[in-house]
Specification:
The chain is mainly alpha-helical and 187 residues long. It has helices spanning 13-54, 61-82, 98-133, 145-149, 151-172, 177-186.
Length: 187
C-alpha cells in the first residue's frame, strides 16, 4: 500500500482538511487557556486588593487558580507542540539535514504522540475512577476531581491530532504546518 501522494499543487485534500480542523481546535483550546490566564490574573489581583485594602482575603481564590493552571497547561500544550515550541534538545538535531533530520523529527513526533496517548488513556481511566469513588479536591472548593482530570485526555487528544498531522506531513516530505502557514503569510 502506497502513501497518498500530494497533488502537484501541494498537500492531499484529506491532510488539508485535517490541518484546518487541527488549526481550529488548537486555536479554540489556546483561546480558552488564555481566558484562564486572564481570569487567574484578575482573581489574584482582586484577592490581593481584598487582603491588603480590606483585610478580607477570599480563601478560595488560591484553590481555583491552582485548578485553572491545569486547564492552562493542558489546553495550550497542543498549540505549543504544533508550533514546535516545546522544550527540545536541538544542539545535535539542528546539524542534521535531509533524511536524518526527517527521521529524527519523526521519532520526536512519535514520542510526543505516545505521551499524548498515555494522557488520553490514563487520564480517562483516572477520571472515571475518581468519579466512581467520589473524590474531591482538598481545600475550600472541594471540586470533583474527575472533572479536572478530564482535562488530561482532552489535552492528550489534541496533542495526538497534532502528532498525526505532523507525521503525515513528514511522511509526504511536506513542511510542518506552522512553516507552511508562515510561508503563505510571507507571500
Amino acid at each position: 500500500m502506497h502513501a497518498e501522494q500530494p497533488p502537484a499543487g501541494g498537500e492531499p485534500r484529506a491532510l488539508r482538511a485535517l490541518g484546518r480542523w487541527v488549526t481550529w481546535l488548537t486555536a479554540a483550546a489556546t483561546a480558552l487557556s488564555a481566558a484562564c490566564v486572564l481570569a487567574s490574573l484578575a482573581l489574584i489581583g482582586w484577592a490581593v486588593v481584598m487582603r491588603y485594602a480590606f483585610s478580607r482575603a477570599p480563601v478560595w481564590v488560591d484553590d481555583l487558580v491552582g485548578l485553572m493552571l491545569v486547564a492552562i497547561v493542558m489546553l495550550a500544550a497542543a498549540q505549543v507542540l504544533r508550533r514546535g515550541e516545546h522544550i527540545a534538545v536541538d544542539v545535535f538535531t539542528e546539524k542534521l539535514s535531509g533524511r536524518a533530520a526527517r527521521w529524527t523529527q519523526g521519532l520526536a513526533v512519535a514520542a510526543a504522540g505516545l505521551v499524548a496517548l498515555m494522557l488520553v488513556i490514563n487520564g480517562w481511566q483516572t477520571a472515571m475512577q475518581s468519579r466512581q469513588f467520589g473524590i474531591v479536591t482538598e481545600g475550600r472548593l472541594e471540586w470533583p476531581v474527575w472533572m479536572l482530570m478530564l482535562l488530561l485526555p482532552m489535552g492528550g487528544a489534541l496533542m495526538a491530532l497534532v502528532c498525526v498531522e505532523a507525521l503525515w506531513r513528514l511522511a509526504l516530505g511536506l513542511p510542518p504546518a506552522v512553516e507552511q502557514h508562515r510561508q503563505a503569510a510571507d507571500e
